[in-house]
Amino acid sequence: MFVATNRFRVIPAMAAEFEARWLGRESRLHELDGFIRFHLLKGPEAADHILYSSTTLWASRAAFEAWTRSEQFRAAHAGAGASKPTTLGPPQFEGFEVLQEIEGVRTPG
C-alpha cells in the first residue's frame, strides 16, 4: 500500500473558506483503480497557520501515480490557485510505502 499526503499551512482567517472548498468539492477518487481511502485532517494551530493534511491510501505507488496522470486528477486540480490564497505557500507532498498495518476492532459510536 501507499499513503500520499499533502500538508497545507492555512491562514487562520481563511480556515473556514479552505474547509468549505474541500468539503464542498466533487471527489472522483472512487473512480480510480487502487484507491482505498481519503481523509482531510485538521491539525494543530501555530501563530500564523493551522495545519491541514489531505491523505489518501492507495493499493500501490503505481495506483497513486496513475491518479496523478488521470482525467480525474486534472479535474480535481483545475483552477487551483485561481482564487484568493488560503495557505502560506504551496502544499508539501509526502509519500510513504506502508510497511506494516494493524487494524483494530471498530466499536459503534
Task: Please explain how this structure is put together.
It contains 3 helices and 4 strands. The chain is of the alpha+beta class and 109 residues long. The protein has a single domain (2-97), classed as Alpha-Beta Plaits, CATH 3.30.70.100. Strands 2-3-1-4 form a 4-stranded antiparallel β-sheet. Strand 2 and strand 3 form a beta hairpin. The protein is globular. The mean pLDDT is 91.
Overview in brief:
With 109 residues, the protein is α+β, with helices and mostly antiparallel strands.
Poorly predicted parts: none
Distance between the termini: 28 Å
CATH class: Alpha Beta
* Mean pLDDT across residues: 91
Largest sheet: 4 strands, antiparallel
CATH topology: Alpha-Beta Plaits
How many domain modules?
1
Count of DSSP H/I helices: 3
Task: Tell me which CATH architecture applies here.
Answer: 2-Layer Sandwich
Shape: globular
* Percent in strands: 25-35%
Give the spatial strand order of the biggest sheet: 2-3-1-4
Radius of gyration: 15 Å
What level of helicity do the residues show?
10-25%
Total beta-strand segments: 4
Order of helices and strands: EHEEHHE
| Helix-strand makeup class | alpha+beta
Pfam family, one: ABM
GO molecular function: monooxygenase activity
Protein name: Antibiotic biosynthesis monooxygenase
Keywords: Monooxygenase, Oxidoreductase
Entry keywords:
109 residues, 4 strands, 23% helix, Alpha-Beta Plaits, four-stranded antiparallel β-sheet, alpha+beta
